Amino acid sequence: MLGVCYYPEQWDEARWTTDARRMRELGISFVRIGEFAWSRIEPARDQFNFGWLDRAMDVLHAAGLKIVLGTPTATPPKWLVDECPDILPYDEQGRVRGFGSRRHYTMSSQAWWRESARIVTAIAQRYGDHPGLVGWQTDNEYGCHDTTLSWGPEDLRAFQDWLRRRYQSCDQLNEAWGAVFWSMEVADFAEVTLPNLTVTEANPAHRMDFWRFHSDQVAAYDLMQCDIIRAHSPGRWITHNFMGFVSDFDHFAVADHLDLASWDSYPIGFVEKFPFSEAERNRWAETSHPDIAPWHHDLYRGVGRGRFWVMEQQPGPVNWAAWNPVPKPGMVRLWTWEAMAHGAEVVSYFRWRQAPFAQEQYHAGLNLPGADALSPGGLEAGRVAQEIAQLGQLPAVQQAPVAIVFDYASYWATMVQPQGCDFRYEELAFRWYEALRRRGLDVDVVRPGAPLGGYAAVIVPTMIHVTDAAQAALESAKGVVLIGPRAGSRTRSFAIPHDLPPGPLHDLTQNRVIEVASLRPGLTQTVSGGVEGHATRWRDHATTTAQVLARFEDGGPALTQHGQALHLLCWPDEALLGSVMDLVCHTAGLHTMPLPEHIRLRRRGDLWFFTNYGPEAWSLPESFECVLGNHQMPAQSVTVAKSLSEKV
Amino acid sequence: MLGVCYYPEQWDEARWTTDARRMRELGISFVRIGEFAWSRIEPARDQFNFGWLDRAMDVLHAAGLKIVLGTPTATPPKWLVDECPDILPYDEQGRVRGFGSRRHYTMSSQAWWRESARIVTAIAQRYGDHPGLVGWQTDNEYGCHDTTLSWGPEDLRAFQDWLRRRYQSCDQLNEAWGAVFWSMEVADFAEVTLPNLTVTEANPAHRMDFWRFHSDQVAAYDLMQCDIIRAHSPGRWITHNFMGFVSDFDHFAVADHLDLASWDSYPIGFVEKFPFSEAERNRWAETSHPDIAPWHHDLYRGVGRGRFWVMEQQPGPVNWAAWNPVPKPGMVRLWTWEAMAHGAEVVSYFRWRQAPFAQEQYHAGLNLPGADALSPGGLEAGRVAQEIAQLGQLPAVQQAPVAIVFDYASYWATMVQPQGCDFRYEELAFRWYEALRRRGLDVDVVRPGAPLGGYAAVIVPTMIHVTDAAQAALESAKGVVLIGPRAGSRTRSFAIPHDLPPGPLHDLTQNRVIEVASLRPGLTQTVSGGVEGHATRWRDHATTTAQVLARFEDGGPALTQHGQALHLLCWPDEALLGSVMDLVCHTAGLHTMPLPEHIRLRRRGDLWFFTNYGPEAWSLPESFECVLGNHQMPAQSVTVAKSLSEKV
Amino acid sequence: MLGVCYYPEQWDEARWTTDARRMRELGISFVRIGEFAWSRIEPARDQFNFGWLDRAMDVLHAAGLKIVLGTPTATPPKWLVDECPDILPYDEQGRVRGFGSRRHYTMSSQAWWRESARIVTAIAQRYGDHPGLVGWQTDNEYGCHDTTLSWGPEDLRAFQDWLRRRYQSCDQLNEAWGAVFWSMEVADFAEVTLPNLTVTEANPAHRMDFWRFHSDQVAAYDLMQCDIIRAHSPGRWITHNFMGFVSDFDHFAVADHLDLASWDSYPIGFVEKFPFSEAERNRWAETSHPDIAPWHHDLYRGVGRGRFWVMEQQPGPVNWAAWNPVPKPGMVRLWTWEAMAHGAEVVSYFRWRQAPFAQEQYHAGLNLPGADALSPGGLEAGRVAQEIAQLGQLPAVQQAPVAIVFDYASYWATMVQPQGCDFRYEELAFRWYEALRRRGLDVDVVRPGAPLGGYAAVIVPTMIHVTDAAQAALESAKGVVLIGPRAGSRTRSFAIPHDLPPGPLHDLTQNRVIEVASLRPGLTQTVSGGVEGHATRWRDHATTTAQVLARFEDGGPALTQHGQALHLLCWPDEALLGSVMDLVCHTAGLHTMPLPEHIRLRRRGDLWFFTNYGPEAWSLPESFECVLGNHQMPAQSVTVAKSLSEKV
């Protein structure tokens, strides 16, 4: 199903009816509204102006559109900021981040919670049972513009409270943080400082707790909004629109109280954001890398416990990357089908019409700037709508054969303490995912501690701190478990485990890491034996009592096996990563289908969705029967097919 | 004629007479003084110490030098800053920019206007009718060190006032800015914030108005000084010394009330400042790129409505670039003749003697540091002085066959909203100018709205917002008009035109831009047809009813023609740019003279000035008769010649 | 002799006895303790808790270890910072540098001096005559984390006081600084500002004095600690642990009142810190460049007037560089012997046991994290201990045949005024040292003004300001004196000398510099004649009456000779540098032994220490008899040998 993001407050009321009708004509079923409209809903304190929104919702509903209503907390209006300046966030340099764009609040502010509750209550009461309303979106893009962490006085106060609850006594905090080192001990929680603007790096345990504190706040803040909405809007689901390559808070924890996950898919902009090589960036500039959107689909399907939307789908060029090319013809359609293939319930385009004003005036919409005329992306959306109708109800999404365990806390830990300045957890996870997908495998992304019983292979790119639950899940996995470098290298208190890394994973791996090396670009170490390639960026120097499948040149273990557990003791280059993944698949008995760099495959029930990211054509094997598209796939095309053989 | 910048306050009074005599002996006619001397003129409030300056002016006058007196407002003294700390500017990071160098004031400060008026009045009253005085320079290098924009409380107050005058009501401001987007609406002008330190980018309309406000302030502040001077100094002209590659304010608007323009020419330092490639920077490190000084000569001849000086000419190595090489022998002479060729009335060297102390002690002068001995540059200046005398009165400067329309507001607009981070307006304009000059053409640089009737070709690299006057001038142009990418892409309110770009230029071009692509380095699009090459950095995707002269690979129009109007829908690489310029010249019936990369030509009356930037020699065609120099031009040389044929 | 750094406060008291015993078993004689333990010694004001430290010292002493006790002033505890917030330093951006790591104090704070004196007195009184105590370390790593300069209100006040003492009157200050330039004159010392956050660069004379002021403060602060210690701890020596590649204060001046110098040797981390090329960084990533540690050994032997320790020796990977590889096997041993070869009295490893918590948890120790088991580095240390015992007392260190004059003030001067942004004094000095060492020469590093009589060659890479003492020493040198570019280019007041550079060195060199060129990367100038190669980065354009040994292409002098004085008028590339050094050695009659890039040699008495930094093997000439190791030296090995011929 298709949706669209719409801002009735930005257009003359006279245009609403036409807009709604044209949405339906294009094949759109859902419309998201309201998430930035606070200044129009409440232009001054307690002076609510619901009239326009009442009418807008009625118009949309009357046209047959199902409405998703956003709470407007991402954009507190000026009068509120002036009344309560302590809602403003601070950056890491200690500067107030002021009014004039969006997300100018810190969740540490008590005033902000009070005001958020007030506006959410008002809107939920007003529209909770509107007949057109099917669901809610809380706020908008938590963490966008680096807003998860804030470094102001309100944050310090709230952080001290959080520490007080967590550690009970300063002795316990001092002990946990190793504060005796450099005389950093405190005698009262009120003595704790923010971990910024220190002379040299702050204690990583201090920084890690600061990150956890903020992540906890996001979950608690979102739950506060959900509780209010649920009290006033029975029968409607709630989601939040998460982002791509934003890992500053634990999305699993936030989604625990959401009904479904959603995310905002800007495949091209992310090519500039993710640390690709320049060659890769040029290669994928106008189509996006073929694993960017899929990675997030699989991640958010996991975050949403099986249910997810694409709440915002890029419909053409955007405005916010360093460079913003026009997507190749066919890509808007391809991305839409890619989302469907991975289980998206709805793909909702951002936005209905390009705004000719303000910050995003260079952001394409389904319609040309300010106009009632479809853009190139709008035309592609119309085609997809027809194809969806043709294809009918898609089969259910089944569990994948492979799981990647994704751990937000490992992202924070490696940001807090990179040790080698290119050890980037998101990059590691993405590259391992890419290697699996190049082998034609479907992948689930799961949280640490999730049950792993049904997977033939479980991939743990790394997991810095291994909780009891995560340890138990890994130990009870049935399939092959591949553990990566740095795993188990820190306790909950951000200390090296007393029995050395991988700590809780020692029984599984039979390894002990005694030294670690971060390797500068250009410095590699050769790995040979059962797998071949090079270590780059990182190497764990370990002693082992496991079987050594491959060694470094100096004889140290590079890949070990103990039972079903493989342990890779380095960051692998592309060759070594491929070699390891081949071994994993072979060991796990997984059937693979090697794909060229521009082709991907995702199954949904008995349907095989092939996507060609171009620029070369590609042909499906003859053993498939096409349901949509053809065997001969031109660049930027999709083919949906059924396999004629039992297994391909 | 030659001049020199001199600082009597920096040298023992005993040396003044010798200095003045040696200036005259070298062939110098004009001397600029006084522009940094506030602390000596008024060492404490209202305690004026004019005696030394009286004597200095008398000495210079007695030696036969014509004096240009600068107002000292670029360097408010410490006692004044301590009395009125609110004159200090703020940087975009919100920090006060303190005392200790120069230009430490914001024009938004009311105290600063009051104090400026006070000191200018005192000096104008004292020296307005001094017999040696021929002209005035206001302040020094507006905008230098990024001082056009300031971000403090005084700036906010003055900006709010400016908005109040402009928009009358908040409704109009909210409407113009599209402030409904992200709930940025204000209910009172006092609610408007500075557009810095926001969470993500501020509204570009907000930022654009902030830039306009500051540009307006420069013009008003300068006019205030001019009004005072004119009241007390009848019969003297007024100028301001503008800079190279500084476009933060509208120089045309400032010069509207000046008698002539002047600029400070540091050809080598600008090689590091302008975004040349590293190869170009190495190529031109010791001579400067052959179009840097000419571009500014042509620009400031336009700014000065035909009259301009070089107020400061680099006489050797300077101190302020990342690297500061010694100019190749001959370059000081060459630059001086280059300025004359382009119509400079006076070339004034900075400075008479290298100061052995303070910030610019590594800045060469005509004399060695602290000494009464000519530097290598001083020797070259002496040679030029003799040559000027030999050559006698130069012919008048005539209108060039080609005009480039240069639009300061387009610089601000693309800085505010680059969309692709290498879309640099100054670079675009410079490259198009360079392409014309490589074809041996003389060029005028004119402001938007200037009459274009007399030009065979009019070049508009881009013009983001097209005013009514600019539209009218372009529509009434007689020659070929070449319009570049992004033209007409924004209204006065910084919105996309309701009928899509190029908005007011639609009738001229017959094009509509429906999408734009910014292209990262490495990403290009091939153009072929009537012109050949590649688009880089930017492409406008357009629909057209004009004749399509060249297309992109996907069939989209790249270069269109409608009547005399050519529209290039991309940023051209060097090959495409050359191809387009060849077509323009051919269409316009312009006779070109292709020149190697190190040779340039500029005509003045019947004199043809050839400059060889080296390192290779070059020979003039035989059809010229040399007036100065020879047919065989060695590296770093000048030849002035007359054409023996009607047209070459 | 070997030592180790130990933190009893970080471990259960129960482990101390075992630790002490195992240290002795490993062959360790000295233990440094206490330097970060303020919060445990004085957990609240005047509540001293000496018990644990009493017991720790007794345990160590009982085990036969000699104790070096550090004063804990590098880590003021939180209660003190809260009581006296004005002890906190400010960064150049004007931000307070807060509590939470270390070195969070400015020496400008009067409160800080009072508190420092109080804690040092308390500790010196308590332990001054402890039978296990042999020496003291003041504070820890002055200048670490850019803490020499601070930019807060306390710094301004103290700086004004320093200026008042230095200049007596504002007239003298204004004159010295050339403050008339840009109206920067002050009428009261209280008007002087900090030289940061100015609109453009502050006056370099102002900045230079600010740097001198801070350097003076370091010496005075350290002397204050020394005076207290000496009053209470008779018969014990005092040192400070200096750093590598930190030149922000005059180390010679600090060491004037120390009994011996010491420094902290992290050879691998420095590979990332020093401006090596990427190729060099990769080449030496796992061994360090073969001149990094030796350079500092020679420097600190000079700073310590012949006596120095390595107070902290890297024993494995560290945590603080951009990348932190594991040293190649053998390097910990090699570095230890390298230090001994250069005269180190003791090599003390940092640290006994890797801390599993806090900022340095990735910093290796002699024992594994938290464990009682030797790390790979610990095993190498044990081997060295045995070898030292075998070899017995080493011969005394004799004066080297070559001296490099190292001038901290030249570092400040070129930082204050680089003129070419890659003119880095430390790099220049290091490269010239490297060139000498590649020729098998032993080198002393001496301060300006030190007697130079005994040296066959004296190398002055540059010396921006030449004091009378430095001039006298150079003029009375007996050997060849090689002077580098920019020498003598500034007076004490940071002005160009009235008789032009090299000012006081004119008589020695017979040159006058009339212009200088800084050359961007890619821009070089060819030198030919008696030496061959290229100038890069810098060229002095000079007139000369000396003999010209080599010239630039334009005929200007590149290398001149006047008597024994050679003057190189540029920054030489590697070829030119080698050519010049060959000429110096030849002229000075020095016997050289050309060594491959990975081999170095240092003599101590009749012992020749050869070090092989790998990865290739190398063979000693047959004319040596090996005392330790073999003629055939594998990678990462040491051979100590005696020469069988009179001279090799």
From TrEMBL, chains A, B, C:
It is an enzyme of class 3 (hydrolase). The keyword Metal-binding applies. Signal peptide: none annotated. This is Beta-galactosidase. Keywords: Glycosidase, Hydrolase, Metal-binding, Zinc. Gene3D superfamilies: 3.40.50.880, Glycosidases (3.20.20.80), Golgi alpha-mannosidase II (2.60.40.1180). Pfam families: Glyco_hydro_42, Glyco_hydro_42M. It comes from Cypionkella aquatica. GO terms for biological process: carbohydrate metabolic process. Belongs to the glycosyl hydrolase 42 family. Substrate binds at R102, N140, W320. InterPro entries: Beta_galactosidase_Trimer (IPR013738), Class_I_gatase-like (IPR029062), GH (IPR017853), Glyco_hydro_42 (IPR003476), Glyco_hydro_42_N (IPR013529), Glyco_hydro_b (IPR013780). Residues 400-589 form the Beta-galactosidase trimerisation domain. One of its GO terms (molecular function) is beta-galactosidase activity. It comes from the Bacteria. Residues 5-390 form the Glycoside hydrolase family 42 N-terminal domain. Its EC number is 3.2.1.23. It catalyses: Hydrolysis of terminal non-reducing beta-D-galactose residues in beta-D-galactosides. The active site is at E141 (proton donor), E312 (nucleophile).
